[in-house]
Design a protein that fits this description.
Distance between the termini: 28 Å
Number of domains: 1
Order of helices and strands: EEHEEEEEE
CATH architecture: 2-Layer Sandwich
């Protein structure tokens, strides 16, 4: 993973074979950013997607292998309730037959590349567990 910074925004590039989840964790640690919003595209050799059930309060996970175009990728980094950086990523991915799958991205392995535009927020974004959904949602009662 390589990245550059223009004073407000970052660009991140993953090379073939790199894992998105690991790269985002390394990026957050290296830059000490605790609040970002990002979008991106590129290719994925493998992607693990989830669908969250409000009834069971659990994700159903499925891994898709084979080269896919990343048609949309967006997410954020925020601090969880313990102060650790938490990733929240969604995406859609098209195969060579132009069939698309999408959902909550647990991780992906970069194809030729993954390119991300990262908007830094100057202040931490925090999450708090919501009892109704079981999810750690953005806690907007905290000021940035």
């Amino acid at each position: 993973m390589t990245y550059s910074f223009d004073g407000f925004n970052y660009l991140i590039r993953l090379s073939k074979g790199e894992h998105l989840a690991e790269a985002l964790t390394q990026f957050a640690e290296a830059t000490h950013t605790h609040g970002v919003w990002f979008s991106g595209f590129g290719g994925a050799l493998e992607v693990t997607l989830g669908f969250y059930s409000l009834d069971t309060k659990q994700y159903k996970w499925q891994t898709f292998t084979g080269l896919r175009e990343i048609t949309a990728l967006q997410g954020n980094l925020a601090l969880d309730e313990k102060g650790a950086v938490m990733q929240h990523v969604h995406g859609s991915f098209a195969d060579a037959s132009f069939q698309t799958v999408g959902g909550h991205v647990k991780d992906l392995i970069a194809g030729a590349t993954v390119e991300l535009f990262v908007h830094r927020i100057y202040g931490p974004i925090q999450r708090k567990t919501d009892k109704d959904t079981g999810l750690q949602l953005l806690d907007l009662s905290k000021t940035l």
